[in-house]
Amino acid sequence: MMNDTALQPAKTTQTSQRLDWAAGPWSRANRVFLGVAILIMLALPWGVYQLGIGRFLLHLWILFFGWSVVAESWNLIMGVGGIFSFAQIALFAIGGITTGALAKHLGWNPWISMWLAPITATIAALIIGLPSLRLRGPYVVLLTLAFSELVRNYHSQGPKWVAEGGYGLRYVPKLGLDEMLGSDVGRIAYYYIAFVLFAIASYVIWRVFHSPIGMSFRALRDSETYAISRGVDPYRFKLLLFALSAFFTGLAGGFYVHYNGNQSPAILGFSVTITLLAGIVLGGWGTFWGPILGTGIMTVLPELMREVDNYRNMSIGVILALLAIFATRGLGPLIGDGVRKLIQLFRKQPQAG
Fold first, then answer.
1. pLDDT at 2 > cutoff 50
2. Rounded Cα–Cα distance for residues 127 and 87 (Å)
3. What are phi and psi of 134, to 5 degrees?
4. Cβ–Cβ < 8 Å for 75, 285
5. What is the C-alpha separation between 256 and 262, in angstroms, rounded?
6. What is the C-alpha to C-alpha distance for residues 126 and 298, in angstroms, rounded to an integer?
7. pTM of the model as a whole
């Protein structure tokens, strides 16, 4: 009788070995990196205000935290689960519509209504996930794109309480931090809220990556027949994947609408989807750090190229094309390989004396 190792697809084993740039989830390198990153993130708001660029830089960081949550969640369902869903931005918008409408039209406290955003997004994801279970490849793409277009039309041409004549939600109540704490301190408070949201979502997704559930997701992606033979229920696990991916996406959408005070139907434009997808692929999809790195690049790069505004989109396209050619696995794995080689080189250095 063949053993389980012989039956296991090689791709699944190789993929599980490339999940992180260090040796393992609790490796010393990861712990040091994480500790230093958290300290920098906590000290950053107060430091940048000393340089006179606090409000704008913190705004970019808040956007980065929010969109990173969406990118990580999308990578979970597409990069890890192998389900080519294009409904992620629609789920983000549904979260914003839910809490924005409740706070504006029914007078709900945004701190309360915001927690209904992930619930509504999760329910919507399960509804779209059920028919997706029996579809494969391009049919899932078409179904989820149709769902996104349906949400966009509803947001721009639907009832007044959600469309407002094609402008979407405007003058949505914010969280009140600016009024309570002042403009500058209020922006710092928004930064910390976004950071906590990002940290919690990243930790949960990281745990999924390094858990039997994550291995089941990858097994279904690489060989559904093998996964079923090992007792993995494809319907239950795929619905769980849709729910996990939608929950934090909806929460990010809820925070976003109360941070900006509005949500336009333009958020559901194809350019937003492509930009977010480009960040995931650029960083390295199917990896943990890749979507975070790619989102950071796609957040900062347009701002760095404002001086060449007329050629900005073309220049960004050229940069992405070059990276796609010379870093086919994404920048995350490329940087990870470099870090590993540096660590090995350092360990091989002869000790003094």
1. no
2. 12
3. -100, 5
4. yes
5. 9
6. 29
7. 0.85
pLDDT of residue 7: 39
CA dihedral sign, ordered 219, 121, 63, 44? negative
How confident is the model over 30-68, as pLDDT tens digits? Answer: 677 778 888 888 888 877 766 666 678 888 999 999 999
Q: φ, ψ for residue 174 (rounded to 5)?
A: -85, -175
43 to 67, 181, 262: CA distances (angstroms): 21, 19, 29
Q: What amino acid occupies position 164?
A: E
Q: Quickly tell me which residue has 């090995």 as its tokens.
A: 344
Sign (positive or negative) of CA dihedral 77, 82, 87, 88:
positive
Nearest C-alpha neighbor of 20 from the set 323, 307, 238, 337: 337
Cβ neighbours for 332, distance < 8 A, ≥ 6 positions apart: 21, 283, 284, 287, 289, 290, 293, 294
Instruction: Please count the other Cβ atoms lying within 10 Å of the Cβ belonging to residue 156.
Output: 18
For the chain, report the end-to-end CA distance as a whole number of angstroms: 56
Per-domain residue ranges of the chain = 53-268, 270-347
Dihedral sign from CA coordinates of 48, 53, 54, 59: negative
